[in-house]
Amino acid sequence: MRTLTRAQIVVGVDGSPSSVSALQCAQKLAPALGATIRVVIAWDYPPKFPGYVPLDTSEFAEVAKEHLSNALYAAFRGDVPDDLQSSVVYAHPVQALIDASRDAALLIVGRHGRGSLHHLFLVSVSTACISEARCPVLVVREAPGSI
User: Fold this and answer.
1) If I label 30, which of 39, 48, 101, 132 is the partner at 20 to 30 A Cα–Cα?
2) Rounded to 5 degrees, what angle do the CA atoms 124, 145, 135 make?
3) Where is the UspA domain (predicted)?
4) How far apart are CA 70 and CA 52, in angstroms?
5) How far is the C-alpha of 122 from the C-alpha of 128, rounded, in Å?
6) Taking a C-beta distance cutoff of 8 angstroms, is the pair 27, 122 a contact?
7) How far apart are CA 15 and CA 13, in angstroms?
8) Residue 83: predicted pLDDT
9) What is the pLDDT of residue 120?
């Protein structure tokens, strides 16, 4: 017997204004799709120290949790949807979102994240998700006048 589950919208968050807009977009789309919202924030070791593995990773995870908390507050002003799920994942952001997209009806990401010159040298998270995600991807710009 097959059980029916609600569709899931996965939202990639990094604390940037465009990821806050992605959360707000998910909130608007979820009722129309009959979907729940799953928020994913990922952290990885800083790339400037290849091969270096710090003994205490709690600081990285705590910063990610803080970005998640701030983004949820900025998007929902304290009125977070009851069925919203969130997770902090230790992985490269692209891989974390691709993995999460396997069970999603839709993946929503912001156009530009927190990386300052990242988009000049590397493929952006949004571009990589468009290419690799296992579900449709919606890329959201920062809302005018937001944050």
Assistant:
1) 132
2) 35
3) 8-141
4) 29
5) 10
6) no
7) 6
8) 86
9) 44
